[in-house]
Amino acid sequence: VRSTEDKSTASFPSQVYALVRRVPPGRVITYGAIARLLGDPRKAREVGWAMAATPAETPPIPAHRVINYRGDVSGGPGTEHAARRKKLAAEGVTFLDDGRVDLERYLWLPPLA
DNA sequence: AACATGACGGTAG
DNA sequence: TCTACCGCCATGT
Known about the structure:
Blueprint: H1 12-21, E1 29-30, H2 31-37, H3 44-52, E2 66-67, H4 81-90, H5 103-106
Parallel strand pairs: 1-2
Helix pairs in contact: 1-3, 2-3
The chain binds a DNA duplex (13 and 13 nucleotides) through residues 12, 30-32, 35, 40-52, 54, 63, 66-70, 73-76, 79, 81, 84.
């Protein structure tokens, strides 16, 4: 039973959303970090897919705090790309001259405990 | 079932 | 530092 998965009954996307919901305002996390935290570093791409399919719910999932490992806000027009940057800025996140986020400064990871 | 695409990551040039 | 290519996994056609 549960041959392919016994770590949790929750689907991968659900686990992604659960983790993203824990990211505090003014902080960000990367796709790769999420994948790694869920146990499979190579599923980073799947994390991206999951975020693209982020369901509208309450409280809303802070998908705008998820960026790629370079500190760039992914996605083009049509995926609320500009809106995400705006939200980040509203939370106090400053962008570098290249338009990227300083991960060393804003990257958030869940407490070990 | 096969092919092409993608909110990614890492390495090589 | 920037661009290009490859690898991974799931989706949509």
